[in-house]
Amino acid sequence: MEAVVFVFSLLDCCALIFLSVYFIITLSDLECDYINARSCCSKLNKWVIPELIGHTIVTVLMLISLHWFIFLLNLPVATWNIYRMILALIND
After folding, report:
1. pLDDT at site 2
2. For 36, left (φ over 0), alpha (ψ -120 to 50), or beta?
3. pTM exceeds 0.90
4. Of all helices (H) and strands (E), which one includes residue 68?
5. Burial (Cβ within 10 Å: 0-12, 13-18, ≥19) of residue 47
6. Is pLDDT at 92 greater than 90 in this prediction?
7. What percentage of the chain reaches a pLDDT higher than 90?
8. What sections of the protein cross the membrane (predicted)?
9. C-alpha–C-alpha distance, residues 75 and 61, integer Å
């Protein structure tokens, strides 16, 4: 069970790193005026929910599998993403 949790966590973290690089590349294109702000937002907004789900799944898995240190390392990021999503829902 522990190996499955860590393999899934590794794959999820790789996907989140890829997503972060995609965000940086898209924002760099916005900065260089290759794309306009509306298309940049439409490209990035559709990946916010999967990012939130990815961080939350890893955090909950570490809590369930009783890996407290890794859980505490992931907790601030998951909390920030949930807070950011709640603010976005309130402002809309």
Report:
1. 86
2. beta
3. no
4. helix 68-91
5. middle
6. no
7. 80
8. 5-25, 52-75
9. 11
How far is CA 22 from each of CA 19, 44, 64, 91, rounded to the nearest angstrom? 5, 9, 30, 25
Whether residue 7 is predicted with pLDDT greater than 90 in this model: the reply is yes
Q: How many helices (H) and strands (E) does the chain have?
A: 4, 0
Question: Which residue in this structure is represented by tokens 């393999």?
Answer: 7
* H or E element at residue 65: none
Amino acid at 16: L
Closest to 51 in 3D by CA, of 80, 90, 89: 80
Closest CA to 84 of 49, 59, 37: 49
